[in-house]
């Protein structure tokens, strides 16, 4: 295990001072801590996480590393590769070789393939618990300090730092930069008067692992139904059985029925709604339902403060973009902070942080719009809209350039300025 970076003491107050305090040790908070630790080992970083990590937890009850699976884009792979983490994640990942998009009850359908896009894979699907296991192992061996369970009680902005009072300690700490990554509806951001605008979709996303009769051959299916979109994403085999990760969006009443249904009835409903493209569905694992909303923070940067991850923007999961976008934010932020530090510029100044936000603005806006419009477009029952979207899908199947643009978006390459997509 490596030495933790030596934390400074504020000369005037005697208070412990860190370069960064990251609140929220979920996928985003830990990723930032690890990217910084990899970049320059002299960053002093403290991570505060509300819930202790329990490695023996069979129910995956941690809020970030739970029973979900995440479709990582090609650009996320490259970021994790740069941080030396990909070789540990890859054994738990299933490569997406093809994406198959269809609209139930209509003829439009399109296929996007990795070969056509000229990449090894369009993305990778990994269970969150494995992402958690890999990130937490690396964190334990890094220079990052960790406090869990711990929460922020009070934040006092100072002239060029923030003072942080903790719930479980009488000793305050200080940070040049406070990173708020404690998820959607962030309590920490609210303490600073940063609020989130929440627009519920009036839908829930049911997730579950599904055992299949036949091999999935690396095909991911996105299917739009009258009730809402559904995705079946390829997972590595388990116990010799092919598996996929289901994300099934439904209105709340139908979601409650499906959550209460027996496994047999659930599988029957799934097969009816999804069809037989992936063959027979054999078994369903633990089901969890998430209420879905588009949530955006009123501010992302202030002097000495950054809001990241779901605390900054939380998206509809249909296009699998939420974490991928946040990881591009994280990589850009780490880059901007590293450059400022190495040139002796104040890395926590408003100017530096606004520079970060400016670099990510187009990527954030495009990804938010794409993730928000996709489910809304397919939710329209009007036959004119249905005709439009189906001719769109048919056109996409016929026009390689349009398909390759869609594929690039999914791979996180839509915004070349972000620099992580190439
Ligand atoms: C059904 C579903 C499927 C999804 N699929 C995909 C996908 O395929 N691809 C993709 O890119 N994205 C996907 N997403 C989005 C992705 O899960 C999120 O973008 C990601 O979890 C955001 O991580 P985060 O660390 O910002 O927030 P979270 O995962 O919410 O983590 C926040 C952390 O902060 C901690 N915390 C909370 N309050 C406090 C506090 N007061 N003090 C300290 N710590 C605190 C929590 O315990 C938690 O550990 C999906 C989302 C859903 C709901």
TrEMBL record:
EC number: 1.14.13.-
Keyword check for Membrane: yes
Molecular function in Gene Ontology: oxidoreductase activity
Key words, A-Z: FAD, Flavoprotein, Membrane, Monooxygenase, Oxidoreductase, Transmembrane, Transmembrane helix
Record Gene3D superfamilies: FAD/NAD(P)-binding domain
InterPro entries xref list: FAD-bd, FAD/NAD-bd_sf, UbiH, UbiH/COQ6, UbiH/COQ6_monooxygenase
Highest rank taxon of the organism: Bacteria
Pfam families: FAD_binding_3
Transmembrane segments: 20-37
Keyword Glycosyltransferase: no
Top-level EC class as recorded in UniProt: oxidoreductase
Identification of the protein by name: 2-octaprenyl-6-methoxyphenyl hydroxylase
Species assigned in the record: SAR92 clade bacterium H455
Originating gene: ubiH
